[in-house]
């Protein structure tokens, strides 16, 4: 009896999903699943639904370009020597033969001309870094303009923002490693900006540079930061970002059958994985093709870094043009206090740059506080239906472009035969004027598009067919929109501004609102007040017009 009971108990807990696995691979899979629980985990997640819209591929481009950076970076580290030791070049590139240089520069030249495929891998690495930062910026713009950062995704917005900032700085450290004349100029520029910071500037400079510029520790320290520190942090943030995307589920555009509680699309396996895999190779192929055709950072043309020289047309990668422009157009003001000089021409831009970045990072929390909206949002906004937010984003982009012109003022002057001073004055004025004008124009543009949508809902679309009425009037025949289009144009919410509390309580005692409450109410009226959104058509208005006399 005891033996039978034991046998029954053993049969109730099979070690395999099949009595007899079909082959050794299935047996190995069953063995692994019995110890790790992979099957149950995969079953719960591999059928996860993903919406199908081209704009969601922007995040995939970020991920794939990051993978390409890691793969090519590992290959380059096998040949790169992060050392400032002096050597004499005797490689195959004749113009540099016999010239003294650092081991870092010599090894980079050798990678370009001696290592099989080295130049192509170098260029793929650099182009992938540019695509990575560009894709992250555009991806964040898509998230911003559609309101995808709202609850519950505020933390994920911060993770994405940190990935963008770390990607920018890791790119700077990366193109500083070859120790050529161009990157050396950038490092010197960075040192001057750091030293302009009161009190802690010299300590930061010693931490990064290891001593007086140019020193011997710059490249080894930058190499550690570029290869280990920042990529490690970014990898952790990327994993956290993807986990939250999985946990919160994807946002989706409004449409029939789509609600805040479901996701309409295709499953992760096999449809989405097949498309994602193909898209990875497409991104890799395009970056590789660009790298094979378009040269980038030809360090052999600049020569090794020398402290007494500055390369002409020295420009950082485009994503650092914002900070470069701030410093180039700032007047060279200085103030002296208690025997110390504060270089405002460098310090003020150095403070504006992080303040702008912080404003971007905390924007979801600011908008949530202004609007008082604490609901979860999984349906995206059309940018035109959030005029103030869209106008703020457009104003920031215009400011970035203006400062990008300032960062390349010498190139604009030489290529377009303009005065360098005129460009600088234009950028100084544009810093204050262009974002304001862009905000006003964009907001009015969004309101105009809202009016057009309302007109289309109520009167239908224009057909181009002209009809003459019995009394002689000529009118254009309008066709009613299909239900899917009507849903799309009317699915957005009509949020109301936050109202100030009553000025007296239930006992008639004055209860004056505080400064923060009044400020919040005023900002909320700016977001959702009468001049910031067009009332969408109601079902009653649509029925009255479409069924009444005189509809064409």
Outline the structure in words.
61% of the residues lie in helices and 6% in strands. It is built from 20 helices and eight strands. Strands 1-4 form a two-stranded antiparallel ribbon. α6 crosses α11 and α7 runs antiparallel to α10. The protein starts with a helix and ends in a 5-residue tail after the last helix.
Record the SSE blueprint.
Elements: H1 2-11, H2 24-36, H3 38-45, E1 49-50, H4 57-77, E2 86-88, E3 100-102, H5 103-113, H6 118-146, H7 154-176, H8 181-195, H9 201-209, H10 218-248, E4 266-267, H11 268-293, H12 299-302, H13 321-329, E5 334-337, E6 340-343, H14 344-371, H15 387-407, H16 409-415, H17 420-459, E7 461-468, E8 474-479, H18 483-490, H19 515-528, H20 539-547
Antiparallel strand pairs: 1-4, 2-3, 5-6, 7-8
Helix pairs in contact: 4-6, 4-11, 5-6, 6-7, 6-11, 7-10, 7-14, 13-14, 13-15, 15-17
